[in-house]
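This is your field. Have a critical look at both lines of this record:
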Amino acid sequence: MELRQLEYFLAVAEDLNFTKASRRLRVVQSGVSTAIRALEREVGAPLFQRDSRHVRLTEAGTAMLPGARAALAAARAAHDAVQEQQGQLHGEVVVGTMLTLPGIDMAAVLGRFHRENPAVRVRVRHSTTGTQGNVDALLAGTIDFALAAFARRPPAGLNVEILTEDELVLLCGPDHRLSGAGPVRLTELAGETFVDCPEGWGTRAVIDLAFDRLGISRSIPLETTDYATVAALIRQGHVISFLPAGVAARYPELVAVPVKGEPLWWNVSLASSASRPLSRAALVLMAQLRDSVRR
């Protein structure tokens, strides 16, 4: 069994598409298919179910995933250790992130890291399912570390540290009944109509938890992951929403409604697997993210 075969296997397992995997690997598709077939012959079982439209992992393929990831991680760690002795970081770091990172200039951090470590390839993945998507990717081993937001205790198996926090601000349109009405309690919002991010997103989890603790529900007929769309809907006057203060400041035409009681805070945390060691390159990039917040 060759490391190259395992690398091809993981690429197809992550993309569930031979064409996409071959593009990512920069190998012709026939080469990927040949390597997978050879690996299947070696292990004595099909690893993928294939038809004209879909590629799926078989039970054997699913069982092989953890060992394949561990073997490639060990090989990369050995290679990186030798390169470090020569004074330069190598390898690849895969980072899961979110749409909004208050207090963190991700572009500045990545630029500095690349200038200092040009031989390291960094892949930033924006989760389409928010924090939950990043957690799933961490536990599955498809990313090295993530920036995520936790309203409750983080799942077992993760190391988590808070980097920054931002208060959530209740916004309404200038023609909404809450505009200029003075401070409100969360219980007074039970009959309001909200626009919010989908379940699994950090800000959504904070607000849902606050309402759950009060034993009240809210109407959320509109969901979107785009803050500009949220602001545009609020501006129309019939929906309200909670947004991070840093995001709310971008829309001065909206009205911030004071909320009585404890402020609602949303955090951005650095999360990594508690069971899978990180490469030196990943550790350095994480350290630079911490430093950027301290400055």
